Amino acid sequence: MIDLFLLVILLICVITDVRSRKIYNKVIYPALLIGFLFHFAVSGWEGISHSFIGFLIGFALLLIPYMMRGMGAGDVKLLALVGALKGGAFVFDSFIYMALVGGVMSVFILLVRSGALQWAVYSLPGFRNRKAYNFLSLGHALKVKFPYGVAIAAGTVFALLAERVPTIW
């Protein structure tokens, strides 16, 4: 039940993050309250402490990137919400998957903005003619900005799937 609730919240946050580059407090705060109340109702004070520890871990994982202006406050609050809903171990797994997805997204965006993908597609015949191409004018391309809520949501979905699939190791 909490997984479905989390997926709905993630979907809302991805849509708003892609459209307006914002993850709204009016989505995060009520979901956070519902999460705390749910864990209290199911497990009492132990559930609330489990939820609060997950919240703190999720918050702490993105605090330094936020302070270095590499991440928005909404991203930090979204990962903290994931921790509050699913706990500390889960949010750490989500963080690992999120970092992998975010890295792949960053590389892809960098390749597109730098022209490297276009160069690869259009110049493969050029290797036969030994033509040289200057495709890495990376001035603005190195500043990769994208809605990181997408990576957080994808990482969380991967972590949810990993919970249900038997591990290889």
UniProtKB/TrEMBL annotation:
List residues of the Prepilin type IV endopeptidase peptidase domain: 4-106
Matching Gene3D superfamilies, A to Z?
1.20.120.1220
Q: Which domain of life is it from?
A: Bacteria
Q: What Gene Ontology terms describe what this protein does at the molecular function level?
A: aspartic-type endopeptidase activity
Q: Which InterPro entries match?
A: Prepilin_IV_endopep_pep, Prepilin_peptidase/N-MTase
Which stretches are transmembrane?
44-66, 106-125, 146-162
Gene Ontology cellular component?
Answer: plasma membrane
The name of this protein is Type IV prepilin peptidase TadV/CpaA
> What protein family is recorded?
Belongs to the peptidase A24 family.
Which is a GO BP term held by this UniProt record?
Answer: signal peptide processing
Q: Kindly state which keywords UniProt assigns to this record, in alphabetical order.
A: Membrane, Transmembrane, Transmembrane helix
